[in-house]
Amino acid sequence: MIKKNLKEWEDCLPHMEFAYNRAIHSTTELCPFEVVYGFKPITPLDLLPLPIQERANMKASKRADFVRKIHVKTKELIEKKGKNNAARVNKKRKEMLFKPGDMVWVHFRKDRFPKLRKSKLLSRGAGPYKVLAKINDNAYSIDLPIDEFGVSNTFNVADLTPYDGEDLGAYEEEASIARGGEEQLDKKLDMEMDMKTSHGRAREEREACTRGGDAKPAPDRSDRPCRATRSQPRFDRLPRRIRPVQTGRHACANRETIQ
């Protein structure tokens, strides 16, 4: 509808609002305008047939009852749609319930614990903590030190993991694995740097042996960065620029200039 009229998009808002309010919703099977007012908005094409007399001349009490029935039907359809969506989403999920006194691990979300999730190497959770009370099937009150974390002690069941008393917890295992991976990466980089340095020294020693006994000993270049880490390019190794062959008028002008 807007297309190339980017500066006039505000003029299109009433038409877009009318089209949205007149479109039938998949859940309610009615358009939003009909749910609120009890009838569909009239378009220019609807002016040809006259509206039904019963709805046009309906009394206020009957119209209120009619709209009330629409609201009841709409509520039933929304609840039915919600149950269908919940059944489809929870098909492969396992229900997890806790009792007061159970020990659980608490997951640290970035939006709730920003300081504790600054680095990916930090632990993603802590615990175990005791469950104080059950608010409902989806929310629990945890014995979390509020002074230390500064957040509410109510958590969703998705942020809780049962503690069996033996394991270290998935969050601590992930943090230890991440730290171990970083240490292995540092060792690998150090080994590569040592290999490059040793190869360079061996080459210099071979060159010194071939030159003879008067050759100077190879200088110590251990402090110099390796070739891969040099920031400045080696301009002496770049190929010389080849000037293109000029033909025609430009070539004649250049010959006259040279003469």
Question: Could you explain the architecture of this structure?
Answer:
It holds the Pfam family SH3_Tf2-1. Residues 101-163 form the Tf2-1-like SH3-like domain. The protein has seven helices and five strands. With 259 residues, the chain is an alpha+beta fold. The protein has three domains: 8-92; 103-167, SH3 type barrels (Roll), CATH 2.30.30; 170-229. Strand 2 (125-136) and strand 3 (139-142) form a beta hairpin.
Q: What gap, in angstroms, lies between the N and C termini?
A: 70 Å
**Per DSSP, what share of the residues sits in E-state strands of 2 or more residues?**
5-15%
Q: Count the helices. How many?
A: 7
- Computed Rg: 39 Å
Give the helices and strands as they follow along the chain. HHHHEEEHEEHH
What is the average per-residue confidence, as pLDDT, rounded to a whole number?
Answer: 73
Spatial strand arrangement across the major sheet: 4-3-2-1-5
Tell me the domain tally. Answer: 3
**Count of strand segments:** 5
Structural class, from secondary structure content? alpha+beta
The description of the largest β-sheet is: 5 strands, antiparallel
| Gross morphology | flat
Low-confidence region ranges: 228-246, 255-259
Helix content: 40-55%
Protein name: Tf2-1-like SH3-like domain-containing protein
GO molecular function, one term: nucleic acid binding
Pfam families: SH3_Tf2-1 (PF24626)
